Amino acid sequence: MLLISPVEFLDLLENPIEPRTRWPAGLSDPGMRGHIAAEHQAREGRALCLWGDPGLGGLVRRGKQQDHCFDDRLVDASVRLISTRWKPDPAPRWIACVPSRRHHALVSDFARLFAHRLRLPFVECIRQVRDTEPQKTRANSFQQAQNLLNAFAVDAATLRAEPVLLIDDVVDSKWTFTMLAFLLLQ
């Protein structure tokens, strides 16, 4: 019989991030109405853990709120997640990350180390061009998506025509991934 602790069990749970397929009604950008075209949609992703759960979730919270950097155990767990449990198809050929003006190096340092451990290139191709409110402060999908309109720019010269893994520190509304996938795929 194989026994694992409850914390180890939580750290092994699958946490799918389902892509959004429809824009919220009323967005001010006329190109973002109705269904999101399949060629502009993110694919299903994975969250390493749930915020604040014992184990990895606690490490994420501590890294974000106290240490302002993520523990190497999170990088190791992410490498195990993608290489032994999730195995996305197609496999990513490069890594990008969601930039932040509030926590400039937090996600990019993690993504850079993660890419190095996977022997993939890390490409800083996304810039945040205006400040946004935290997504958790927005009341609904319309406000969350509207909050992100024109907040990011993609440097087309650095893009690769291959599958990319986009990394962020926390997933609340999924609108950041949706917007950036839309920009990257355009």
Name a few traits of the molecule:
single chain; two-stranded antiparallel ribbon; 186 residues; alpha+beta; Rossmann fold
Q: Would you mind describing this structure in some detail?
A:
With 186 residues, the chain is α+β, with helices and mostly antiparallel strands. The chain has a single domain (6-17, 30-185), classed as Rossmann fold. 36% of the residues lie in helices and 10% in strands. It has helices at residues 6-11, 56-67, 72-86, 104-118, 141-148, 175-185, and strands at residues 16-17, 45-46, 94-97, 126-128, 152-154, 164-167. The termini are far apart. The mean pLDDT is 91.
What's the CATH first level? Alpha Beta
Regarding quaternary structure, what we see is: single chain
In total, the number of strands is 6
Provide the number of structural domains: 1
What is the name of the CATH topology?
A: Rossmann fold
Q: Classify the secondary structure makeup into a structural class.
A: alpha+beta
Question: Average pLDDT value?
Answer: 91
Q: What is the distance, rounded to the nearest whole angstrom, between the alpha carbons of the first and last residues? A: 51 Å
The largest sheet is: 2 strands, antiparallel
**String of helices and strands:** HEEHHEHEHEEH
Assigned CATH architecture: 3-Layer(aba) Sandwich
Helicity range of the residues?
25-40%
